[in-house]
Write a structure and sequence with these properties.
Elements: H1 4-30, H2 73-85, E1 89-95, E2 115-120, H3 124-142, E3 147-149, H4 158-166, E4 186-190, E5 196-201, H5 203-209, H6 218-221, E6 227-228, E7 234-235, H7 270-289, H8 296-309, H9 314-330, H10 337-345, H11 351-354, H12 360-377, H13 385-399, H14 413-421, H15 432-440, H16 459-476, H17 482-494, H18 498-510, H19 515-532, H20 535-545, H21 554-560, H22 568-584, H23 592-600
Parallel strand pairs: 2-5
Antiparallel strand pairs: 1-2, 3-4, 4-5, 6-7
Helix pairs in contact: 7-8, 7-9, 8-9, 9-10, 12-13, 12-14, 14-17, 17-18, 19-21, 19-22, 22-23
């Protein structure tokens, strides 16, 4: 008998021989029946043959950028770090202090930002690595915890891995959608150094969003030409947004790719439609200038006749809402709150608007903000904060039926401000706009309020809204924004809830690291307290924060800021506030040092 080992070797040899013969025959067929064993090329190993060598890549020299020389030294260092060490490209640097005062992104309107840096990364991984390294550099170099949005790690914790394995057979969850937006394509880093904010985007995302247009002056925006966007369509740069609108910071409506198109009807003469709009505007302006409220019904009938004769257009429907809103604010008996709400919702039941190309997501957010402003300003007697919040909830549920994409209301700053305002039973007398007007006029209109009824808050609604703010802002932004903390601070001062006032003031102080910002908020709070004129609160504030060597104080931050205020009007308003407090409490010991300081200004 033949041993098994010999049989195995014969089989192996036979199989190798068969494979070799098959390979030789196939090569002969490719060579036209002639063997290539005699070919000279066959004697050259495959790894030395010329045709198998890869093409040499061209060396691309990195472009060096000349940054403005007047930038602060720390901002210059960060720019060099982003360029040289992290390899970012296509830098754009904007100094917001150079923008006009009426620009929505000027320092006057966006006090938390001073310098905006926009750069591009090569890929999502490159953007994530650069953002993470920048965060660590700021923490180690300056001791500041940067606030980063949009940076998503791909690492999965063991707990999450077990959960994913457990539900793998159920398929992906319904909320597992990216809507065409990949993570780490846009990362925003508020580094806290000289008011600098860094935006790192992928080239495709940067081309789609065009953030540069938000920080340019209007004449620069008008020069922007048409450009390609996702889907192959071409649209002009959107420069038609009202700067007073909350949407000045939103390029294309919550990162959706829906295009905003102007509605038109080919069957209606454009000139006639323009005349109708002009007539409705004329009636609306006459109503605003009317001092006598007797003829309000006449204005209403005239406007309704013009509206009925005009074609159904989105612009005319919006004008009708603005007209009825003005009527309601003047006399709720002529136009009730429910009537104005129905007029605002009419566009969603219009068959004529269905065939028109409208960005309904943007319309829903815009209408929600309008409705919230109406609820805040309504003069209707007997409507409580709980009823207003309930009305808002029903309004959102009605309009949400027409959504074409996901919407994040809390991404809109105006939404959070108005939602917080709805927790009050009455309108707050002292708000951010009043403080801004006092500073702009150098304190000329500053005076102590008379003893009036204290504004009350809806306790349950306040707790719910505050908890939502905490969860959403800490989860998405890492901290509650300063403008929202200030809004809550002013509300607690108006309602005399001093326990929560001091809590928000502590959170506000811990969120600031720049002396100029400290001084800015110190001035605003002192103006606020001078108007309210609560002696106990004034005593505690001046005792803790006027000149404290062991902590943050007004005098300490004033000296750190080279003994300069942020503006001359701010200095004058601060002086007037101190003198007003001294006038009301001249015999108190805690105001004496502040009074001497005011006289030296």
């Amino acid at each position: 008998m033949i041993p098994r080992a010999v049989v195995k070797e014969v089989v192996k040899y036979s199989s190798r021989s068969l494979i070799y013969r098959t390979f030789t025959i196939s090569r002969c067929i490719r060579n036209g029946g002639q063997s290539d064993t005699g070919d000279e090329a066959s004697s050259i190993p495959w790894y030395l043959r010329t045709e198998n060598r890869s093409q040499a890549e061209n060396i691309v020299e990195l472009k060096t950028y000349d940054f403005p020389a007047d930038l602060p030294s720390r901002v210059q260092e960060i720019l060099k770090l982003l360029e040289v060490k992290y390899g970012l490209t296509d830098f754009k640097v904007f100094d917001l202090s150079l923008l006009p005062v009426d620009h929505p992104k000027s320092v006057e309107n966006q006090s938390s930002e001073r310098y905006v840096i926009i750069a591009s990364g090569k890929s999502e991984k490159h953007i994530y690595k650069a953002s993470y390294d920048l965060k660590q550099h700021i923490k180690n170099e300056y001791g500041y915890q940067s606030q980063i949005e949009g940076m998503v790690s791909n690492s999965i914790s063991p707990t999450m891995r077990r959960r994913l394995a457990k539900r793998a057979r159920q398929g992906p969850p319904a909320t597992h959608k990216t809507y065409g937006i990949e993570p780490n394509t846009w990362v925003r880093c508020e580094i806290g150094v000289d008011g600098a904010v860094v935006h790192i985007l992928s080239p495709e995302r940067r081309k789609e969003l065009q953030l540069e247009q938000l920080y340019q002056e209007k004449q620069d925006q008008d020069d922007v030409q048409e450009q390609d966007v996702t889907g192959g369509a071409r649209i002009a740069a959107d420069t038609t947004l009202d700067k007073e609108s909350i949407f000045y910071g939103l390029r294309r409506g919550f990162h959706t790719s829906t295009q905003k198109c102007k509605c038109s009807n080919a069957s209606v003469d454009a000139a006639q439609h323009m005349d109708m709009d002009t007539d409705m505007d004329l009636v609306y302006n006459q109503l605003l200038g009317e001092e006598n409220t007797v003829n309000l019904k006449g204005y209403k009938e005239k406007f309704d006749s013009l509206f009925e004769a005009s074609p159904v257009q989105l612009s005319s429907i919006d004008k009708r809402f603005q007209f009825y809103r003005a009527l309601h604010l003047v006399d709720p008996s002529v136009a009730s709150l429910d009537l104005v709400e129905r007029i605002l919702l009419e566009k969603y039941a219009s068959f004529e608007l269905v065939s028109q190309q409208i960005d309904w997501n943007l319309e829903i957010v815009n209408d929600t903000i309008k409705y919230m402003e109406l609820l805040v300003d309504t003069p209707t007697i007997g409507i409580s904060s709980a009823e207003k919040l309930d009305k808002l909830s029903r309004f959102i549920s009605k309009t949400a039926t027409f959504l074409t994409d996901e919407i994040h209301f809390f991404a809109v700053e105006r939404f959070q401000v108005l939602l917080w305002a709805l927790t009050c039973e009455q309108n707050t007398f002292i708000n951010a706009s009043k403080i801004n007007s006092i500073i702009e006029l150098g304190g000329e209109n500053l005076e102590t309020t008379k003893k009036t009824a204290i504004i009350s808050q809806n306790e349950q609604g306040t707790r719910d809204v505050r908890e939502m703010f905490r969860r959403i802002n800490y989860g998405k932004r890492g901290a509650i924004p300063l403008w929202l903390r200030e809004q809550m601070l002013f509300t607690y001062a108006n309602t005399r809830h001093w326990k929560y006032f001091w809590r928000e003031w502590t959170g506000l102080r811990l969120s600031i690291s720049i002396p100029s910002e400290f001084l800015h908020y110190f001035v605003r709070v002192i103006i606020l307290l001078s108007i309210i004129n609560d002696k106990i609160v004034l005593r505690d504030f001046f005792g803790k924060f006027w000149n404290n060597a062991n902590g943050v104080s007004i005098i300490g931050e004033f000296e750190k800021n080279n003994k300069l205020f942020n503006s001359e009007n701010e200095k004058l308003a601060f002086k007037k506030a101190l003198l007003l407090i001294y006038k009301n409490h001249c015999n108190s010991f805690w105001i004496q040092d502040a009074y001497e300081f005011a006289n030296r200004l």
